[in-house]
Sequence to fold (820 residues):
Amino acid sequence: MTEPKEAWITGIGIVSSLGEGLDAHWDALNARRINIDEKRFAPYIVHPLAPVSFDVQIPKKGDQRQMEAWQRIGTYAAGLALDSAGVKGNQEILGRMDMIVAAGGGERDLAVDEAILNANAQGNSAPSFLNERLMNDLRPTLFLAQLSNLLAGNIAIVHGVSGTSRTFMGEEAASIDAARISLARIASGQSDIVLVGAAHNGERLDLLVLYEFGDFNLTDKFAPVWARDKNSGFALGSAGVFLVIESKAHAQARGAKPYARLTNVVADLAQRKRPGAVTKSLEALWPKLGALADNGNLITGATGVEPVTSEERAFLKQHPGYAVRATGTAFGHTLETQFPLGLALAALSISRGALFPANDPTGLEVETSEPPTQIVVLGTGHWQGEGMALVEAIS
Amino acid sequence: MTAPRDKFGRPIVVVTGMGVVTSLGAGKADNWAKLTAGESGIRTVTRFPIDGLKTTMAGTVDFVTVDPSSSTGLTERIAEIATEEALQQSGIGRKGEFPGPLFLAVAPVEVEWPQRLELGRAVGKPEFNYHDMLLISGGGKFAAYHRRFMFGSVAGYLAETFGTKGSPISLSTACASGATAIQLGVEAIRRGESDAALCVATDGSVNPEALVRFSLLSALSTQNDPPQAASKPFSKNRDGFVMAEGAGALVLESYEAAVARGAPILGVVAGCGELTDSFHRTRSSPDGKPIIGCVRKTLADAGMTSEQVDYINAHGTATPENDKMEYLAISTVFGERATQIPVSSNKSMVGHTISAAGAVEAIFSLLTLEHQRIPPTINYDIPDPAIPFDVVPNKARDARVTAVMSNSFGFGGQNASLILTREPI
Fold:
């Protein structure tokens, strides 16, 4: 076998509750800004998308109309990433660019659902009722805005990314695996350049319902992720994050400037019926990442739900030298976007020569003034799946 | 003894176990017998009321039921049945210990109407909105619905049940999903990450809203009577696809590992290719370039020329658009041979198993290689003069088949093809 090829992160696109673009996010993180909405879905708390002019990245209104919010957020972030990598509009590269999107989907037409549900509650349960209402009331193109693989489809149509297109599903783990497979394909020479990322619309009643089934939502009072031991839960966050990752040789050949190197991504699926399984799984993944410093940096997407947050905390306690940052505090829980967000903030921090400040009254997150050369990105799913990545400075 | 690596120096990837469930039945034997007898699994839907629907038939898997009933539950169960069959044939690993990763093609998951209606009724008011439903969703009463309607739930279940290694990947590339699952397995083995991979594709999603959604996109056949005659790939009077359920499971192994443990070698995945169409959300680029490119990339990946392919297992959905574009692509790449090489569509009999189709049809392609017999395209009574394929009309045919191309083209510009051979090339 040939030596694995080095993979560089050369493009980052972020849009979230804190704004859009790298500078806005860097400033917001340094100001410890948090944007939450406690009223709209009260008592449930969400991190709403900052105002965004979608026209900038999705110029055709017709395209925007074909998408629901999660697809618009993702297509927008993908455009930012392509701009950041300097490949926007470069048909030669876009035509052979691989794409792996981690997606949910299924955004509902709430008014249609509510009308059917009310009629049903009022006793209209004729066999034809549901069929007729759906046939008459669903917008014909809504399905396309619901299909998981149509975020990738829209990115292909709007931005022309048209090498290959794969959509991974499965909540948080989907994006860990998207990064893992992207890196593996580049390292082995199966791919030269990849667009990888995810998008999440956290301002959805149908999603709040789904997570409420499992009592996962944060209610009543906002607290940073590590300070939710008495009132556990996640606050859904809206965000889209995409990265352009390419082989070092490919980046150098086109004169691209890297933010950081993606050195490794590892993932597993702990059987969580056993208490402590997540802690154990993370401990097993840790040495697989590579040579790690004793006093490093770690960005986690810890959700704030239990018991997994406590299991993650138990793992972190075994690495006391690490400066930890939990993105959930500022961004909320962004599901499939959790891991790309961690990767993006790691690459951004390395490129800016500083880890952004702690935002945690419990003291788990400690300040550091060392310019980071290594950042571990950690993602644990709220109900299954866990993984890590190692992002490093290019010396 | 063939070298364990292909001409590009990559490990050769072979299939050592297969399992399949479709509307025709469970298992390879039953499916193959019915497929080569030209039987249709399409029937009028009885699972739910069909009043008010334009399309009232589908290839449902009615002989498997799950309690409580849900599309995702059925999707999971038929995947499990297909996987058990594949593992039994392969004899790999031990019970509950599969020595490699899982790649699962699965339909996108969402809360379904029976559960949504149950939730609505639980509000206990004649007039309410989503927020009222949200307020009563917690507290544990509906806790099981969280797991059931997570996208990763089917893969999580299969990974636990069969003891696959690492993080299982759930994927969707629409109608190409099954082929993509196989491709991910092939790539993992070629990278040397694993000697084996479990590739499963499953779809049990015939429910009212799914039928309505495809109906509203004018994608489905409305020739409901008789249902068996609805799916008419390559016919002049074709008018859409027929939704269907099914699952396919394949155990992939490196040739070296398979030979070392004396495993049955059912065929070789010689090549995989994919190419995105960025023209439109549901339609192919009119020049066919992305599909043509996909077919060419697949040949190149296999290191083969089109002359070496002697049967094409078509995507053949029976939509007016797909079949026309598939002919354009095949005739562009295969030239004169496009009208001579047999091209048949399993979907004429089992319908379109959507997320599962790529794997189900790969399995049927491998069975074609094993039995040296090509399943027909049924319901072929009025040929479309614009598509002069030899569709193996209505009756199975014995033929010498050494290499099969299996095509999958889907919404969102998803194109994927596979080349399967009996022996390493």
Q: What stands out?
A: Chain A is about 35% helix and 20% strand. Residues 7-109+141-392 of chain A form a domain with the Peroxisomal Thiolase; Chain A, domain 1 fold (CATH 3.40.47.10).
